[in-house]
């Protein structure tokens, strides 16, 4: 699994998850429940991972959706 996105924005994360679901790309969101520790102020980013074999497809999907600037630059 590779991290393709890291964000504090729950709306962005929801949109990306919906895109991946629609394309049938497996994914995993890490740190989603960390709000218990941070007091729900949103300082800890959520990480979105996809299987190694789906990284390029997922990146292309996000670029096509105009979200390429949100991608992790060190993955690919």
TrEMBL record:
Domain DUF2007, residue spans: 1-65
Gene3D superfamilies attached to this UniProt entry: UreE, C-terminal domain
Residues spanning the membrane: none
InterPro entries named among the record's database cross-references: DUF2007 (IPR018551), N-reg_PII-like_a/b (IPR011322)
Protein name: DUF2007 domain-containing protein
């Amino acid at each position: 699994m590779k991290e393709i996105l890291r964000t504090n924005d729950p709306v962005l994360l929801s949109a990306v998850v919906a895109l991946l679901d629609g394309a049938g790309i497996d994914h995993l969101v890490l740190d989603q429940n960390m709000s218990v520790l941070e007091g729900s102020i949103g300082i800890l980013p959520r990480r979105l991972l996809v299987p190694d074999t789906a990284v390029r497809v997922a990146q292309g999907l996000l670029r096509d959706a105009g979200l390429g600037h949100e991608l992790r630059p060190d993955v690919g």
